[in-house]
Write a structure and sequence with these properties.
By secondary structure, this protein is mainly beta. It is built from no helices and 11 strands.
């Protein structure tokens, strides 16, 4: 099982980014997958999840601004982030629940700053 995130960047407040998480070794459509972030000197924080049946949920802090989706043909998870704020600055990780265990990617850095 391997998860590889990409798409992180430096962006100005109010800007947008789309993160991607490419999976190998398992199928996203058979797993609950999520995005989790960790800001400097803070605990990891849940951002968004899409379950195997397609149900989505979001942290209150990102609701209405972020959208999670997946492309089953590409076995890739996405996080569209709009109206970014400085407090969204963090390392963003892709996480998949598969065979009873959580699997994590290495993360992609998002920095929101003017």
């Amino acid at each position: 099982v391997q998860l590889v995130e990409s798409g992180g960047d430096l962006v100005q407040p109010g800007g947008s980014l789309r993160l991607s998480c490419a999976a190998s070794g398992f199928t996203f459509s058979n797993s609950d997958v999520s995005w989790v972030r960790q800001a400097p000197r803070k605990e990891r924080e849940f951002v968004s999840e899409i379950t195997r049946d397609g149900t989505t949920r979001y942290a209150d802090s990102v609701k209405g601004r972020f959208t999670i989706s997946r492309d089953t043909a590409k076995n890739t998870l996405y996080l569209q982030m709009n109206t970014l704020k400085p407090e969204d600055t963090a390392m963003y990780y892709c996480r998949a629940l598969y065979s009873g265990s959580y699997h994590w990617g290495q993360g992609t850095q998002v920095t929101v700053s003017s």
